[in-house]
Design a protein that fits this description.
The protein is mainly beta. The protein has one domain. The protein contains one helix and five strands. The chain has a five-stranded antiparallel β-sheet with strand order 2-5-4-1-3. A hairpin with a 5-residue loop joins strand 4 and strand 5. The model has no long low-confidence stretch (mean pLDDT 89).
Length: 79
């Protein structure tokens, strides 16, 4: 897994529990439209549906990308 630099002084970037829509679990970053932030780890795990390519994860972001998108970076998969 790639190394993610976390800025402790940031007020907008943070680690978050999320549901990530992705056909490939090998990806390390996801556009904002593929990520649904949830409040708890349990909520993320309960909402995961592998048959629909929806997985629970911890992500970091959102961060602006060079392509003009807001991206979330994978910290770790929960399921």
């Amino acid at each position: 897994m790639q190394h993610i630099v976390i800025d402790p002084a940031s007020t907008s970037l943070d680690q978050r529990y999320a549901l990530v829509l992705s056909k490939r679990r090998s990806r390390k970053r996801f556009p904002e439209g593929c990520v649904t932030v949830v409040k708890t780890e349990a909520e993320a795990i309960d909402g995961a549906k592998a048959e629909d390519d929806l997985y629970a994860a911890v992500v970091y972001g959102p961060s602006p990308s060079s392509e003009g998108l807001r991206m979330y970076y994978l910290v770790r998969w929960l399921t």
